[in-house]
Specification:
- The protein is α/β, with parallel strands linked by helices and about 250 residues long.
- It has helices at about 20-25, 30-40, 55-65, 80-90, 100-110, 130-135, 150-155, 180-185, 195-205, 225-235, and strands at about 45-50, 70-75, 90-95, 115-120, 160-165, 185-190, 215-220, 245.
- It contains ten helices and eight strands.
- The chain has a six-stranded parallel sheet, with helices on both faces.
- Strand 5 (about 160-165), helix 8 (about 180-185) and strand 6 (about 185-190) form a beta-alpha-beta unit.
- The radius of gyration is 18 Å and the shape is globular.
- The protein starts with 19 loop residues before the first helix and ends with a strand.
- The chain binds nicotinamide-adenine-dinucleotide.
- Nicotinamide-adenine-dinucleotide binds near residues 52, 55 and 78.
């Protein structure tokens, strides 16, 4: 049995003629990527940088493209995720473990910084090239899951008066460079996703074939008992895993 809280409000009727996999990510990650991009107030022609090419980042990239961003920069270090980012609309790829993210974004944005930056990593960010010292000098006693490497880098790489969008989840107090936020006059937007708010718009885009969700599904199973093993495969990014879908018999 499955208990469905708010069953009179939250669920929606799946439209006829669209397969389950195409609609599945409407439940969370697609609206999250969409909201992350929408927060950047894209009107056309912007430079948008996205940290994290996991499912949320990939949808943020696809959404930024639909909204009209001109340059979309994907930042990650996992090769298959960066390759997918390219197919979802990223015009520029940065491997944070090998390159200086800030310098590359500066170069791509002709010295100005990105118009909008989206942190699709959250509190599990790994330290990239040159970022660890930036964060660690702020507070040395933090555990690795409390160090907002991607967020700090995003705040640094956005242009003055730009927008910092944070769909990535943080659990509690974290050190961020408030001085830089104030001095650059940045706008920060975040929050759990308003899933329901975007369902109609996104369902229409799926029906029109403008959003493709299935290409990020790398693993499928019909057996729920495979859950723990496939979760580990996903968590450790093994076997090219980006997203797992179950079709229980
Ligand atoms: N706001 C919401 O309602 C909402 C909903 C769903 C998910 N989320 C959050 O969104 C975030 C992303 O979710 P996901 O499923 O795509 O996660 P994921 O773990 O699959 O992807 C995160 C990606 O970030 C990359 N990464 C790690 N450190 C980095 C760094 N320093 N710079 C650039 N990239 C880095 C990883 O290699 C990975 O590919 C998580 O924090 C998740 O909790 C938020």
């Amino acid at each position: 049995y499955v208990r469905v809280p708010m069953a009179d409000v939250a669920p929606m009727l799946a439209p006829e003629g669209v397969d389950d996999e195409s609609l599945l990510f409407l439940t969370d990650i697609l609206p999250t990527g969409w909201q992350g991009a929408e927060h950047c107030e894209i009107k056309g022609g912007e430079v948008i940088a996205v940290w994290g090419a996991g499912p949320v980042g990939l949808f943020a990239i696809q959404s930024a493209k639909i909204m009209g961003a001109e340059r979309i920069i994907a930042i990650d270090t996992v090769p298959e995720r960066l390759a997918l980012a390219r197919t979802y609309g990223a015009t520029d790829i940065i491997d944070y473990a090998k390159e200086d993210v800030f310098e590359r974004i500066k170069e791509i944005s002709k010295g100005e910084g990105a118009d909008g930056v989206i942190d699709c990593v959250g509190m599990e960010a790994s330290a990239g090239h040159g970022v660890a010292s930036l964060v660690n000098t702020i507070q040395e006693k933090l555990t690795s899951t409390e160090r907002p490497y991607a967020l700090m880098e995003a705040i640094k790489a956005v242009r003055p008066c730009g927008i910092v969008s944070v769909p990535g989840v943080y659990g509690g107090p974290i050190p961020v460079n408030m001085g830089m936020i104030v001095q650059k006059g940045l706008t920060m937007k975040s929050g759990q996703t308003h899933v329901k708010r975007y369902l109609e718009t996104l369902t229409k885009l799926i029906q029109e074939g403008k959003i493709d969700m299935t290409s990020m599904i790398t693993h499928r199973s019909t057996n729920l008992a495979d859950g723990p093993d496939l979760y580990k495969t996903f968590r450790d990014k093994k076997d090219g895993c980006v997203k797992v879908v179950f079709h229980p018999n």
